[in-house]
């Protein structure tokens, strides 16, 4: 039987929250933000193991205040992240070891429902590279350095990309290994699908996510997430 591992990223600083506490550790409905995404993977029967990637200085806190306190059973490793997000992903992938498929998720996305995971896991063996995503609702315009519109983009072709992003473990690990061998890249890496696209030319399948699957970035997002969590 194929093994599915989740790599959950919690190494970011979250400077836009204007808080001394990192956003993934802020209290949301009585629990740390990070708890909720971990709990979603813990609950799903298809996920066999969770790798938690956090700041090196936070490992002990995560172990005691999240893993032990909430009795998580699937979190097998807590490891330190790297300088940038993609460095942290690479560390998580190396720690994942012998799995067949890997799901990479931002720990600051607490409203991850089981239906999204169902859809991603169902599509993954067929497409080998999948990302949760939703169609954009607003008109998107490209602007120049002076703040003038240069182009209106076709909304029907545009998607907001979320996590989890899921891949064949061997293929995404190979892509990250090749990325790390490069001293410079021609593109700024902002998500894992970009690594697969840039290194291997992978065609990534868009999987229906949820407009509630928001990333905590600003204080207003905490209020919205609290409302959404009551609905899942």
From TrEMBL:
The keyword Lipid metabolism does not apply. It is an enzyme of class 2 (transferase). Transmembrane segments: none annotated. GO terms for molecular function: 2-C-methyl-D-erythritol 4-phosphate cytidylyltransferase activity. Pathway: Isoprenoid biosynthesis; isopentenyl diphosphate biosynthesis via DXP pathway; isopentenyl diphosphate from 1-deoxy-D-xylulose 5-phosphate: step 2/6. Keywords: Isoprene biosynthesis, Nucleotidyltransferase, Transferase. CDD domains: CDP-ME_synthetase (cd02516). InterPro entries: IspD, IspD/TarI, IspD/TarI_cytidylyltransf_bact, ISPD_synthase_CS, Nucleotide-diphossugar_trans. Its EC number is 2.7.7.60. It catalyses: 2-C-methyl-D-erythritol 4-phosphate + CTP + H(+) = 4-CDP-2-C-methyl-D-erythritol + diphosphate. The record marks 16, 23 as: Transition state stabilizer. Coiled coil: none annotated. The record marks 155, 215 as: Positions MEP for the nucleophilic attack. GO terms for biological process: isopentenyl diphosphate biosynthetic process, methylerythritol 4-phosphate pathway. NCBIfam families: ispD. Catalyzes the formation of 4-diphosphocytidyl-2-C-methyl-D-erythritol from CTP and 2-C-methyl-D-erythritol 4-phosphate (MEP). Belongs to the IspD/TarI cytidylyltransferase family. IspD subfamily. This is 2-C-methyl-D-erythritol 4-phosphate cytidylyltransferase. It comes from Candidatus Choladousia intestinavium.
């Amino acid at each position: 039987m194929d093994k599915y591992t989740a790599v959950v990223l919690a190494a970011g600083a979250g400077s836009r929250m204007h808080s001394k506490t990192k956003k993934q550790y802020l209290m949301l409905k009585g629990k740390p933000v990070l708890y909720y995404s971990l709990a979603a993977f813990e609950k799903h029967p298809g996920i066999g193991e969770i790798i938690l990637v956090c700041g090196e200085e936070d490992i002990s806190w995560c172990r005691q205040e999240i893993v032990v306190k909430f009795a998580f059973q699937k979190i097998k490793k807590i490891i330190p992240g790297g300088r940038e997000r993609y460095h942290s992903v690479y560390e998580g992938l190396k720690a994942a070891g012998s799995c067949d498929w890997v799901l990479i998720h931002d720990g600051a996305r607490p409203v991850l429902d089981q239906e999204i995971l169902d859809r991603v896991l169902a599509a993954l063996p067929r497409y080998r590279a999948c990302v949760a995503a939703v169609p954009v609702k607003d008109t998107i315009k490209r602007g120049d350095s002076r703040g003038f519109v240069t182009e209106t983009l076709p909304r029907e072709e545009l998607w907001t990309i979320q996590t989890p992003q899921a891949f064949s473990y061997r293929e995404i690990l190979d892509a990250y290994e090749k990325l790390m061998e490069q001293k410079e890249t021609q593109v700024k890496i902002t998500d894992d699908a970009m690594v697969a696209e840039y290194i291997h030319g992978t065609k990534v399948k868009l999987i229906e996510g949820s407009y509630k699957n928001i990333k905590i970035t600003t204080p207003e997002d905490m209020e919205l997430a609290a409302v959404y969590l009551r609905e899942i």
